[in-house]
From TrEMBL:
The keyword Transmembrane helix does not apply. Signal peptide: none annotated. Residues 1-95 form the HTH arsR-type domain. The lineage of its organism: Bacteria, Candidatus Magasanikiibacteriota. GO terms for molecular function: DNA binding; DNA-binding transcription factor activity. Keywords: DNA-binding, Transcription, Transcription regulation. The keyword Transcription regulation applies. It holds the Pfam family HTH_5. This is Transcriptional regulator.
Amino acid sequence: MIEELQDPHRIFFKTLGNQKRWEIITLLEDGPRRATEIAEKLGHEQSLISHHLKRLLMCGFVHVQPNGTERVYSLNEKTIQPLLKMVHRHIETYCEKKCTECGP
């Protein structure tokens, strides 16, 4: 039996399924942002945002580019942006009406 921490699939979906990280990913769909800007836009403490950005970085969901004293975060263009487009297409096709009827 594979332990949870050793299963990359579980880690991937757990990372993606976290509400705060999903908010960050959604915000970054509009383009790169500094950590301070992300915290401000989402109304969260920067320490919380930094914690979640660290996990997103470790899992390759985002990239970071130093810009002076700040760090600018962007979505992984090679894998995550295409994945999000596919997810949005799936939701529009199969989930918009059906999934909302099921509730949380």
